[in-house]
Structure formats: structure tokens, C-alpha cells
Amino acid sequence: VTLYSEVNGTLVRGDIPFKPAQSFNRNDLILKIDDRQIRLDINSLKSDFLNALASVLPEIKVDFPDEFAIWQDFFNSCDFEHTLPDLPPVNDQKIKLFLSRFNVYKLYYQVRNLEIQLEKHFFYAPFQGSIISADLRVGSTARPGTRLGEIVNLENLEVEVQVPGEDIGWM
Fold first, then answer.
1. Closest by alpha carbon to 16, among 25, 4, 8?
2. What is the dihedral of CA 15, 18, 19, 24, to 10 degrees?
3. Most distant CA atoms of the chain, gap in Å
4. Distance between alpha carbon 102 and the CA centroid of its chain, in Å?
5. What is the pTM of this model?
6. Quick one: CA dihedral 52, 54, 58, 61, positive or negative?
7. In whole angstroms, how far apart are CA 115 and each of 85, 86, 125, 141?
8. 115-160: per-residue pLDDT in tens?
């Protein structure tokens, strides 16, 4: 498997040294790209999202008292340490209008987009294997499309060999 960066940043060591012939286990952090900036961007945008949601809560409380507890619980479940939970379902078009007017949907999906980008800063091993090549070293700068290296699966190793046609019966 060839590893490519989808994000910008400085390479940071994972659970193992990112060097050829280094073995790793399934779910080990092979490599990490510095995520400090995107975490700050997420928290800044999450603050805007929570501000927009806090602005619409009084309107929901007055106009839709039956729905208020759902949205208040959702607001309370949002924090800066975890990903945003799924938005509560909206069946009433007026609530949807309030949420849209205060940019709640727009900000929610912008935060979710950045959360997906954050995941791309971490390279976890999908299998037990070994590093074949490491094109960049810790401390190097990666950009989208940069080849980072190659890993091989040692759980289900495949070998490609040439076999003469008359020997196929022996396979």
C-alpha cells in the first residue's frame, strides 16, 4: 500500500519509527502529520457554531416548547474535545427556517468537514505489516499528493512468480 498525504503539515513520529524494515501491528499509528492548526480551526468554527445555536435556542423555546429540550440537550452535548454529534432530526419547517437563518446548518457542516480533514492527519495501520520505503522523514513537510512511503501486509502476503505453462498442474 502506498501512503500519500492528503493534507499539509510537518511529519511527526507515530507509535513506531517511520523507517524501512520497521514492523507494525494492526491499528498502530504509523505516521502523523502535525494537527495543531486544524484543531484550532475546528475549535474556532465550533465556537461560531455554538454561538449560532445559542442564538436560536430562545426562539425555539418560545415558539416550539416541545422541541426545546431536544435542542438544549444537543447544545449541551457539544464540546471542544469531541466530534460533533449528529444533528437532531427536524420535522417542522419553521424550526428548519430558524436554524437556517442563524447559519446553524452551514456552520455544522463546516465543522464536520474540518473534522474529516483532521482524520487525514493520522495514518493507522490497516493490518500487521512492515514499512517497505519511507520517502519522507519525521520533520519533513508533506503537501497534498506527497508520497510518504509504502507498507506491506504481512497477514496475507501475496507473491507473484512466473511459472512455465507445463508446470501449472503442480500449482
1. 25
2. 40
3. 83
4. 27
5. 0.83
6. positive
7. 12, 13, 20, 21
8. 999 999 999 999 999 999 999 999 999 999 999 999 999 888 777 8
